Amino acid sequence: MPVNIPDNLPATEILTNENIFVMNQARAIHQDIRSLRIAILNLMPTKISTETQILRLIGNSSLQVDITLFLPDTHQPKNTPEEHLIAFYQTFSEIKDQKFDGLIITGAPVEQMPFEQVDYWKELQNIIDWSHDNVYSTFNICWGAQASLYHQFGIPKYQIPQKMFGVFEHKVCISNEKLLRGFDDVFFAPHSRHTEIRREDIIKVPELKILSESPEAGVYIVATRDERQIFVTGHSEYDPLTLKSEYDRDVNKGLNIEVPRNYFPNDDPSKAPVVRWRGHSNLLYANWLNYYVYQETPFDLQQIHA
């Protein structure tokens, strides 16, 4: 089944060319089913790229999904054309009276700042609190995961000496976990961050469980025991060239950036990167949508509560 997005969203043409089934709103209303309502709080500066990356994964499932893109009221994006934001985004105040099957909170390039110094921190706290009564399951990515864990459970983030940058091996920590169904014993995922959360802090919180971690990159996937909150510290949604773009950007700025590890053949940035995380990414999002959203959400969204 398709993902239902506006006809003229830039992702529509890209995904159609990749043979990912997208459906316009006029056609969707003739489908005799209740599609899943997924809200995406997009905090990334490269909003159009992030939309496409996430919609590519959501659209590769067997479920019909309606997407709502939204932003904090208290932050003005600087890197996305205003006409795109006006056409495709709402603010939190415009959607807060609605209910959603699922919510995705993206990462943001503010991880080296204390949470309290982020200009939309108070509003993000309100959004997280709002989600408990208005969203059935939330999928938090990278800084979004760190922020949510800090706000809800007091889990701190730590500055690391060298940026965690590259594609790393991960292992499954809990067998028979629905979110990890179909995963290989060892799988790959990209990371791009300057901070980390630590196992020793997470295991002190009874409501949390570690589903996956990496010998190099540390804790990767955490979930609440009621499985309504998922926290992913990496970027499984990244395109093949996203890490390369970040590397080239920092090199052009004259920053002291290491070559992303385990990404280019022989760590040679003149060579085309090898994608080793695509299968994992598709399974991760498909399992979340199926087992944690579709199978669990009340048919009547008004019945959602904490």
What characteristics describe this protein?
Rossmann fold; 306 residues; 12-stranded mixed sheet; alpha/beta
Give a short synopsis of this structure.
The chain is 30% helix and 25% strand.
Structure explained in plain terms:
The protein has a single domain (3-239, 281-303), classed as Class I glutamine amidotransferase (GATase) domain (Rossmann fold, 3-Layer(aba) Sandwich), CATH 3.40.50. Helices cover 30% and strands 25% of the residues. By secondary structure, the protein is an alpha/beta fold. Helix 1 crosses helix 3. Strands 1, 2, 3, 4, 5, 6, 7, 8, 9, 10, 11 and 12 form a twelve-stranded mixed β-sheet that branches.
Total E-strand runs = 12
What's the quaternary structure here? single chain
CATH architecture annotation: 3-Layer(aba) Sandwich
Structural class: alpha/beta
How much is the average pLDDT?
A: 90
CATH topology (level 3) name: Rossmann fold
Radius of gyration: 19 Å
What proportion of the residues form beta strands (DSSP E)?
25-35%
CATH superfamily: Class I glutamine amidotransferase (GATase) domain
In sequence order, what are the helices and strands, one letter per element?
A: EHEHEHEHEHEHEHEEHEEEHH
Enumerate the spans where pLDDT stays under 50 for 5 or more consecutive residues. 27-32
CATH class: Alpha Beta
Give the termini distance in whole angstroms.
Answer: 29 Å
The total count of helices amounts to 10
Sheet of most strands:
12 strands, mixed
Number of domains: 1
Shape: globular
Helical fraction: 25-40%
